[in-house]
Sequence to fold (372 residues):
Amino acid sequence: MPEEIEKADKVGSVSADRYAQIVAELRKLVEETSRAQFTIGDYALEVEPMRGPGGSAPADDLFTVKDSLFRLAEDIGLSYAFVKEARWTASRWPAERRQSGVSFTVHKILAGISDERERFAAIVTPPEGKARWTADGARRRVGRQVENPVTPQEKVSAIHALAQDEEVAATVTGDLLRRPAVVAQVKPEDKVRVVAELTRDDEVAAAVAPEFLRRPAVVARVAPAEKVKVVEELTRDETVAAEVTTGLLRRPDVAARAMADDTARHQVNHAQVERGRQARENFEETSPVAPAIRQIDRTVEFLDLVTACHAFVAAAGRVVPGLRDRELGDDERVIVHENVARVRATLDWIETAVDTGQVDVDGELARLLQGE
Fold:
């Protein structure tokens, strides 16, 4: 009994002994069929010999190669594709190289080995552990997809072959991604690609993003620069930005770092002044007691201005005498001179406001007052 026949009580609906008899009979028939197929190929070669690259038929030929083979196929009742394939296979296997007991199908598959010496050696060397060539064994030898995949890679290749249609691939992918054990084995970089592809649709991305942002472990792994970009995008809406900023400025460390930025600090100061101005204008426009209060305001402003001047003079009177016999460094002197220039500009501004009532500042004065 041949080695590859499994010794079992039954194979299909027949006993193991009967199965062995069937195999023996069919092998004889396959061998006869193979000889017949090679004969068809040999005759097709006689009708139309193989031509080398760039070769051409004699000028007096009545038919092209396809026409000749097509006519031959019709005259013997076979398909053109079969006759063409038999011709090519026969051309790859000279009579003395054809192996008895090896099917025409195996010869046809191994005919794909381009190197002649390698091809002739392969036909007499079945795969390791096998007594004879099988069609799938030959396909593995030439790197083609097998009909009965066994190894993981062969199964992957089979799935790829079946999923070439986009709709089929989409359905299979969706089914696989529902299996946690499968998803767990996907490489991180491939998961990133999958998520990127699945979230190309803005609506899908918008639905997925909040789910990610609710996971602290995910947010913690995002680079600081990327977090800044996310916050900027999420706070483009003025209402959202105002609410978020208010919440952040309630955190002492955040507020301190924000106020260390000159631009941010000036914007906050400007906002406070602007808010006060708007409140004052609203009060003056809507309150019935505004005219009476306006006179009191002028008095308060006068007192505030005098108090500010007095406080400055008093502070200078305390601090300046302490500089006796002390020599400041170059950097210190530069800083003091800059601040003196700001004070002098401020005093000029006060005098102008008092004499003319004009409190507007020009660009240069504004830069001085802001420390620029």
Observations:
- Residues 163 and 169 are 5 Å apart (CA to CA).
- Residues 1-6 have pLDDT under 50 and may be disordered.
- The chain has four domains: 10-146, 149-185, 198-234, 237-286.
